[in-house]
Design brief:
CATH topology of the domain at 1-65: Arc Repressor Mutant, subunit A
Strand content: under 5%
Number of strands: 2
Order of helices and strands: EHHEHH
Structural class: mainly alpha
CATH superfamily of the domain at 1-65: Winged helix-like DNA-binding domain superfamily/Winged helix DNA-binding domain
Low-confidence stretches: none
CATH architecture of the domain at 1-65: Orthogonal Bundle
Number of helices: 4
Helix content: over 70%
Length: 146
């Protein structure tokens, strides 16, 4: 059987093997061991008709047999992992700096509230003293005028 070049569907083990340039048994083993994405009709047995799309085969081959793709994926994974670690470290450092700044601000606010409270109490005492002195002065004036 001749596989038409423009056909997107490979519909037998022979077609699949010919497209990949391998033997039928090798391609069947690749399906079992390496996950070649062969499709079968729903409810069909292991020995039933098979279908495989050329695009699926090409994508599968590119991910399984390309050393450059593997190295590229490993490099991307390493970069992602390194980037994630760097981001995490920066986040932890920023959190520590924020915690330290927050503690310093809390101490400053507490100190300012204490000073404000003391000044308010001092003003209240002065106000009472001034009002009592004012009362005394008023009494003295009223006595003097009598």
């Amino acid at each position: 059987m001749i596989v038409p070049e423009d056909s997107t569907v490979l519909s037998s083990w022979k077609d699949i093997a010919k497209y990949l340039g391998k033997g039928v048994r090798t391609v069947q083993r690749w399906e079992r061991q390496l996950g070649l994405p062969v499709r079968r009709p729903n409810g069909a047995s292991q020995k039933s008709a098979v279908v495989l799309y050329r695009g699926d085969v090409d994508a599968w081959v590119a991910t399984r047999f390309s050393a450059r793709t593997l190295e590229k994926n490993e490099a991307q994974t390493a970069r992602s992992s390194c980037s994630a670690r760097t981001t995490l470290r920066e986040g932890i450092r920023t959190a520590r700096e924020l915690r330290t700044a927050n503690q310093a601000l809390t101490e400053q606010i507490t100190h300012s509230i204490r000073m404000l409270t003391e000044r308010c109490e001092l003003l209240a005492v002065q106000s009472l003293r001034d009002s009592s002195l004012g009362e005394c002065a008023k009494r003295a004036e009223s006595l003097a005028t009598d």
